[in-house]
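TL;DR need structure tokens for one chain.
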Amino acid sequence: MSGWQFWIDRGGTFTDVVARRPDGSTVTHKLLSENPRIYDDAAIQGIREILGLANGDPLPFEDISAVKMGTTVATNALLEREGEPTALITTSGFADALRIGYQARPELFALDIVLPEMLYTKVVEIDERVSADGSIIKPLDVSAARTLLEEVRKEGFNAIAIALLHGYRYTEHERMLDEIANEIGFQQISVSHEVSPLMKLVSRGDTTVVDAYLSPILRRYVNSVDEKLRPEGLGPNLMFMQSNGGLTDAHHFRGKDALLSGPAGGVVGMVRTAEAAGFDQLIGFDMGGTSTDVSHYAGELERTHETQVAGVRVRAPMIHIHTVAAGGGSILHFDGSRLRVGPDSAGADPGPACYGNEGPLAITDANVLLGKLRPEFFPHVFGRDGDQPLDVKTVTEKFDELAKEISQASGIPQSAESVAEGFLSIAVENMANAIKKISVQRGYDITSYTLVCFGGAGGQHACLVADRLGVSRIHIHPHAGVLSALGIGLADVRHLSEGAVESVLSEELLMDLEPKWLSMEAESVNVVKTQGVSDNQITTMKRFGIRYAGSDTALQVDAGSCSAVQESFEEQHRSRFGFISPEKELIVESMQVEAVGVSDSVDLLSGQSDTDQDLLGVFPTVMNGEPHETPFVARAALKTGKPVLGPAVLVEETGTTVIEPGWSATASENGDLILERVVALPDRVAIGTDVDPVQLEIFNNLFMNIAEQMGVVLENTAASVNIKERLDFSCALFDPEGDLIANAPHMPVHLGSMSESIKSIIRQNPVMTPGDVYVMNAPYNGGTHLPDITVIKPVFDDEELNIIFYVASRGHHADVGGRVPGSAPADSTTVDEEGVLLDNVLLVADGRFLYDKIHELLTGAEWPARNAEQNIADLQAQVAACEKGTNELRRVIDHFGLDVVHAYMKHVKDNAEESVRRVIDALTDSSFTYLMDDGHQVSVKISVDHENRSACIDFTGTSDTHPGNFNAPSSIAHASVLYVFRCLVNDDIPLNAGCLKPLEVILPEPSMINPSYPAAVIAGNVETSQVIVDTLFGAVGVLAAPQGTMNNFIWGNDDYQNYETICGGAGATANADGCDAVHTHMTNSRLTDPEVLEWRFPVLLETFHIRKGSGGDGRHRGGDGTVRRVLFKEAMEINVLSGHRVVPPYGVDGGEPGAVGHTRLISADGTVTEFGASAQTFVNPGDRFEIETPGGGGFGKSNN
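>> reply
TL;DR here they are.
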């Protein structure tokens, strides 16, 4: 080769440089990314320092052949919201589409809802409209558009993002706007059909805005580097790493492709170095100061095509990397009962306590206290003046104080060392759970994999993480500390070209697509060729994005014949989701060409020393609860093939590797370090059944993680849009008495009510047998309303004699029969009108799914289910979720023992109970009555017993049984109480039965919150639940009322059915304004993307925008509601279940109420019909239906 190559990863804190000399050998260097007193740019400075250039010396351009870089410039600009001021140009009626998004809130129990800040600072609506089939509804007015864009330019905007409805496929209007913007002189124009040419306005629009927002920042950085490297336009080839794992020429580098630039280099480096060492099934473990990135590799780079970065949806191919907030700087907390790690970080300043800058205790400090990190092996760069060693004294003092505090609070004597090991155990568990999410949850058995460790802190914890995963081999490359930079140097040049298709798979379609393949392939190959890659080094890959009709989940499969594509898709679908649906059509969503310019092979050998191992000393450490006299060895001096047995610590300049007892480390010929477990792990861990603050946190996380894994299985394997995409489901674990232990943070209205279903099954089945699974939806026997179907599995001990716990999954089925499509008649008066009732039905007997039985029940009723096959497919998915929960809990029992697991089931409930008692300590007696639109009411009186730290929640005064369908079975009232007190805790505690233990709930009988059969209940679950919650918060007085309704909008005919809930305004608090346009309290379901909605159904969404000024005034304003208007192209029946059309959402402490909502039919002839809270009507083609959702109440008197 000729000339130097520099491979650079410019991170947030450090810049890593790997230089390849002209003779092929490599050298590494690390420097601060920001050091303005010494240099302007870390990348150029790194090159200068490696070449030994003095200040002022010119760069020897002729001696450098290539510079390849990864950078966090774009990511940092996104995180800090310091991108280019950007204007969004979109279709009229959809100015707020990206802000509303899919309407879900990120934190289920947060009273102050905080959504990510939008990247654009101005929106311009263009008066144009194209339908889903490409017909022009409203032509683009070129003159008016030009005037609007000129005004934007005059306001100083240089960057615009153009994203029109259906512009991904019908591009004419976007192209016209692009031409106008170019003529006006915008410097950055991102157009959605070029940036992300795929269906979904929200994610495509977000991606287009990201591109416009970040590309100018990126371009300025690229140009500054380019000017220094190639001042006359001549010099080394400059390339940048993309999020997809490939390199691109500096001037092809775009904002949307830069967000995982550095981490993607780490994954490529992991793969190249581990494969060179003979390993091909890998788990990447990249642990830094603030977070840990984990990745999975089993033969090919795994990509995700839609993800969230810094709260922004990005739809672009990216290496699949999962990040967890656990790093060396993660802060250690004790809350009086539990030890917790993170998610907050000490950062670089002040840093962990050992940095000597009065920082808090962090994970790094735990390793210092345990002797795994020693000051003599670190440079003296700490303290206020940056000239001190690691501060061991402060760390020891702080841990001693914390150990005393924990001992007093828990009654269990703790030493500083046991506390430090406890915190490490929790961090390790968090990281292991993150790895499970990208591997075990997706169906991979990783016990035979190799854990590939890199990043500054990875080596300190690798053995512990591997043990927790059952992995017995670890690979650490000599350049593990700079592996992202190495990967950037080893990466191929890649260019991806995508195009939308959205057509049914057929041989005719494949023939029609041939010209497009040729065009896309030529484009991609040409882009790679222009980057200096010769023809014989370029390969291309063609892929389709395939999904089932009616689904949103597309899988990437290699292009080929119709039968080959179908076979490949079905094989992947069965492997990923556990089933196929051969009766459904296959939709070709997209086509993708990837051109790869293969990089030059690089010799990674870096021979080892032949000298004796360099023993740096023997020092005391604590590992696995025991003190050890531990050898510290210089890694560079390890002798090839001679193992070092743990306990030991290997020291090198860029990291520390801890070899735990039972492990050995061996250096290979090329300098790789291979760690292997040589002493088998004990089958069972002995931790005792008494509550321990460390194990309490670990079991909290374990139980929650199992419920989350159940949810992933259910989401993946469900057939219906309602469960798979709207995520209207919940999964949970229960103890042998049916009490809730842990649930994933899914749907709040489900969370506290499922326990009643389990207890109902227990009461009705005194004898159950292994392999049995039950199904029920009976509102008067533990259920809520008929569409919510619960699947319950008892799990037996090894002797199959005793039930040791229960697992359950609840899903909202789109239709379970009844008088109207969607099973939600607005005018029902008995539960029988609302669907098929399932009461204590055996669904699986002895492991066999009873298909015929459930099919007969669903189809044999007076008003049968309209799509029983879909119901059954979803029930099978719910059974699969329960099976996943069973298997994961059995693994926990195998590891800890049943007695310990049962003990901690009680301990986690006790912990939640204590958290609620602390809330009660701060409460006073209070009461509140909340009127509904039809005159019914919910009343509550909260009586506090401070001596016993308990409270009585008495709903006496609530209206009698509702004559309509707003009756809420008793389980819903309990769920509402549980939710409210969990919110009041204002801390990250598990929601379980312990929360209710200090609370006595009195429900008058009969009443609308404790009705009797056969009263109708469909609105009780979705509407009355919100009223109960708002009544409780009204009594407590900490939160103004939100919109207080789910705005259930159900429409359909024999061919189409759709159910959606519509967001509104959140209530204000003493701390903050209410959030606009978001789901609150007992629901958090997603909304179908506007383009997908119009593609699937004969409707036109005319507008969906924020209803400005609908939030109540106050010191803190209530959030604004929304306006949603749909035009129907076919005759449909419509049912609406809602509230607050008459009674406004209340304000608190002088705050004004929010505006009431409106429901109206706008007939084709212009006639307007207003409805109340409940509406049942029919629409004809050309009719419109409009819903204005309520605003939230204000808090405190306005200062105006």
